[in-house]
């Protein structure tokens, strides 16, 4: 964690301010103006289950404003996992896996969070990968109250894998994200994020967990970044306090952007 914070401080001067964000999990409704492009870099570190488990997700995103409140983006994604292959018990051997994928995103802003009673946007993303494919639909809402920003997301995802005999196995996910941020001055923002994630199989919720933690953003004419750390605080599906069968104990995500 100390190394991650040090890296943030070292690369901050390289940023250029474009479509600034206040949260790293909760999306806002803003889109890039027509003809403006930017490169976003994502890093998400997931750690600690009831066995040794570490996962690092990285996304390289190219965004472009098409005008008429429409934005398109393309991603190159990679995931690295290291885990005990025994999983539920200790004493196994270290298993390392890697996967890559590409994604296409379309985001359409419907209303403005300042000029209108509430900001809103819709979002669609399609991913094709080496181990699975996925489609996502998202609805965003946000509102600016002087120095405070409140944002809420509703997200549905369906992923599938092709196994033996070309049989497909499906997995559905439903997620709700809430972010509240206070802008201390034009450069700094301090906030919190609340995330509820659910796995659904055959119409039934099999796993559900709640994550909560602080977020920090830095934005000037020289650039912006966002850092969020969210521990798992509640297992909503069983009597166990935390769910380590499908989720990690701590999620850490860092985003930064460069205008092209």
Notes on the protein architecture:
A hairpin with a 2-residue loop joins β6 (133-145) and β7 (148-162). The chain has one helix spanning 2-11; strands at residues 37-47, 53-67, 70-84, 94-111, 119-129, 133-145, 148-162, 168-183, 188-201, 204-220, 223-235, 250-259. 4% of the residues lie in helices and 65% in strands. It has a twelve-stranded antiparallel β-barrel. The model is unreliable at 1-18 (pLDDT under 50). The chain has one domain (2-259): monomeric porin ompg (Porin, Beta Barrel). It has one helix and twelve strands. The protein is mainly β and 260 residues long. The relative contact order is 0.21.
Search tags:
twelve-stranded antiparallel barrel, 12 strands, mainly beta, Porin, 260 residues, globular
N- to C-terminal separation? 29 Å
CATH class: Mainly Beta
Q: Overall 3D geometry? A: globular
As for the number of domains, it is 1
Read across the widest sheet, the strand sequence of neighbours is: 1-2-3-4-5-6-7-8-9-10-11-12
SSE-based structural type: mainly beta
Percentage of residues in DSSP E strands: over 45%
Order of helices and strands: HEEEEEEEEEEEE
Q: CATH superfamily, please?
A: monomeric porin ompg
In DSSP terms, counting alpha (H) and pi (I) runs of 4 or more, how many helices? 1
* Number of beta-strand segments: 12
CATH domain fold name: Porin
From the alpha-carbon coordinates, what is the Rg to the nearest angstrom?
A: 19 Å
Please state the average pLDDT score.
Answer: 89
Sequence stretches where pLDDT stays below 50 over 5 or more residues: 1-18
Helix content: under 10%
Tell me about the biggest sheet?
A: 12 strands, antiparallel, barrel
The CATH architecture: Beta Barrel
């Amino acid at each position: 964690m100390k190394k991650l914070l040090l890296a943030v401080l070292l690369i901050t001067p390289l940023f250029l301010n474009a479509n600034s964000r206040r949260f790293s999990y909760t999306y806002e409704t803003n889109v890039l103006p027509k003809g403006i492009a930017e490169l976003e870099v994502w890093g998400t570190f997931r750690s600690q289950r009831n066995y040794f488990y570490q996962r690092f997700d990285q996304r390289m995103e190219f965004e472009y404003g098409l005008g008429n409140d429409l934005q398109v983006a393309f991603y190159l994604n990679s995931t690295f996992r290291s885990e005990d292959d025994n999983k539920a018990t200790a004493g196994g051997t270290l298993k390392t896996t890697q996967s890559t994928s590409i994604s296409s995103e379309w985001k359409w802003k419907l209303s403005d969070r300042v000029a209108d009673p509430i900001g809103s946007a819709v979002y669609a993303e399609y991913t094709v990968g080496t181990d699975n494919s996925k489609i996502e639909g998202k609805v965003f809402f946000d509102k600016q109250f002087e120095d405070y920003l409140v944002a809420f997301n509703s997200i549905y995802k369906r992923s599938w894998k092709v196994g033996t005999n070309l049989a497909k196995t499906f997995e559905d996910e439903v997620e709700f994200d809430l972010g509240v941020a206070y802008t201390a001055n034009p450069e700094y923002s301090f906030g919190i994020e609340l995330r509820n994630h659910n796995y659904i199989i055959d119409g039934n919720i099999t796993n559900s967990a709640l994550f909560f933690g602080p977020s920090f953003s830095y934005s000037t004419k020289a650039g912006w970044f966002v850092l969020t750390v969210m521990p798992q605080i509640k297992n909503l599906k069983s009597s166990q306090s935390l769910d380590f069968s499908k989720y990690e104990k701590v999620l850490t995500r860092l985003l930064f952007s460069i205008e092209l």
